[in-house]
Design goal:
Blueprint lengths: L1 H51 L17 H7 L2 H34 L4 H13 L2 H11 L6 H8 L14 H26 L3 H9 L5 H12 L1 H16 L3 H7 L10 H11 L3 H29 L4
Length: about 300
């Protein structure tokens, strides 16, 4: 019995090992296209940017020279860089909480409504589908200091007109409002999906326990169960806000007096206007590191407050 069982066990082990090897080969073959795309589109360009940031290469130059940390040393003393970093942080600090909060409010109103849901979803999602360059032109007309709709409205209400895009005190605020307007629709759709996934019987159980008011139901049921979707929306909104570029390039070009200079626009200027590719690469590396750090911090904080079941 023992001598017969040993060959059978060995045969089963060999069969399972061969089957596992075959499954692994199939898995690698099926995932190869995605891995190649990931390597070619994301990993290799990122590594090339990091290497380039340690050189003095300029666009069109036939040669380059390894300069080590000189670009980063220059960044540390560059007032324009620190100004653009500060403006970017302020922009993100304004856009993320307001766009997520308003998106959640709109999602709750649409979910609570009984009619016109499709219309409101489409209306609020329209800015996400529109070309931001074209919409920036529309906003430029609306923010015109004399004939713009916004100034005409506030003048009719008895308030003084403002030169929204040329006043250093209002320019970044104006771009942040455009960013909130654009991000609200996507946040609303993502949070609507999260609201749809909340089981209805939880609200019934909460009502049995005495939580029958709208605010009580929201705090005890909706907000905790919406945790995963809300965490995802916060991270996505922060990353998208850090990538602000289009409105700055079209409406203000970093002005007035660097009041709306942001990191991506500074990188664009250094790389494509001044042709300092190595220095632009250093700004890009700092930008990527900052976004990665912020994402990890947000994910860690949100993870402690999120319920997945």
């Amino acid at each position: 019995m023992t001598t017969t069982a040993l060959p059978l066990a060995t045969e089963r082990t060999t069969h399972r090992s061969g089957q596992a090897r075959a499954e692994a080969i199939v898995a690698y073959v099926l995932s190869a296209p995605a891995m190649v795309c990931l390597l070619g589109i994301l990993i290799l360009p990122t590594l090339a940017t990091v290497v380039l940031s340690f050189t003095d290469w300029q666009f069109g130059a036939p040669t380059l020279r390894w300069i080590g940390l000189d670009n980063y040393t220059h960044l540390a003393a560059d007032r324009v860089f620190w100004k653009s970093l500060g403006n970017t942080v302020l922009y993100v600090a304004a856009v993320v909480p307001l766009s997520v909060g308003l998106g959640l409010g709109v999602a709750l109103l649409i979910e609570a409504g009984t009619s016109g849901r499709a219309f409101y979803r489409a209306a609020y999602f329209l800015p996400v589908t529109a070309t931001l360059i074209a919409m920036a032109t529309v906003w430029e007309i609306m923010l015109h200091p004399s004939i713009g709709l916004i100034n005409v409205t506030i003048d009719a209400l008895g308030f003084p007109k403002q030169n929204w895009l040329k006043n250093p005190d209002w320019a970044l605020f104006s771009l942040a409002c455009i960013g909130i307007w654009q991000a609200l629709g996507l946040n609303m759709v993502l949070l609507l999906a999260g609201l749809k996934s909340i089981p209805r019987d939880l609200y019934e159980a909460a009502a049995v326990d005495g939580a029958d008011g709208p605010w009580t139901r929201f705090v005890t049921v909706t907000l905790p169960m919406l945790g995963p979707a809300l965490s995802f929306v916060l991270i996505i909104s922060a990353i998208r806000s850090f990538q602000v570029f289009d409105t700055v390039a079209v409406l203000t070009e970093g002005g007035p007096n660097k009041a709306t200079e942001v990191l991506l626009y500074t990188m664009y200027q250094e790389g494509f206007s001044f042709f300092r590719a190595g220095y632009a690469a250093a700004i890009t590396v700092v930008f990527l590191a900052f976004v990665l750090l912020l994402t990890l911090v947000k994910a860690r904080i949100a993870e402690k407050r999120v319920h997945y079941s």
